[in-house]
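Handoff note, outgoing to incoming analyst
You'll be picking up this chain. Sequence as last confirmed:
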Amino acid sequence: MADKPIRVLLVDDHQVVRRGLRTFLEVQDDIEVVGEASDGAEGVARAEELRPDVVLMDVKMPGTDGIEALKRLRDLANPARVLIVTSFTEQRTVVPALRAGASGYVYKDIDPDALAGAIRSVHAGHVLLQPEVAEALLSQEDSPSGTGRGTTLTEREREVLGLIADGRSNREIARALVLSEKTVKTHVSNILMKLDLADRTQAALWAVRHGLTD
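Most recent structure output, in case you need it:
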């Protein structure tokens, strides 16, 4: 367990949802709820003020929704990892959220213990998608950016990409390949640049599409 608890911000327009999440998360020894927000605009402001490690964000909210909030956080280079927690399963909602920079996407009916695990996972640098979310993304008719460019990757970059798709953090990849974390970060940057991808989520999906996972 980390020495410091994972600082979490709750962003949802339903007070009862926020209260339920807070009640459960506050009994976790390694998770601390540092604040709440009732819409995306307030969520961005609170994220800038509180600098949480992880933001739990709904998608559909009045005013500024979760996707717009994700874009604003990305533009502000806010380091918080965003885990979407929503009841919306439509592909037209999932895909924009991930493209906007979400580190994971889970549904509100997720088991509480699994939610705590999801928070720990995205905080550790993993990309987290429930199986049906990944299936929806992979079934898209339009291929993601980077199609046809895999041959520009070195063998080492392909190894790193495969481990990203397995949900490994940079530290875990470094340990698996006996590399420094700095070297892994360089490989990840090169992969994203060569494949014209925005983030690790898109990289993981690209790797799955192109058979780089077990």
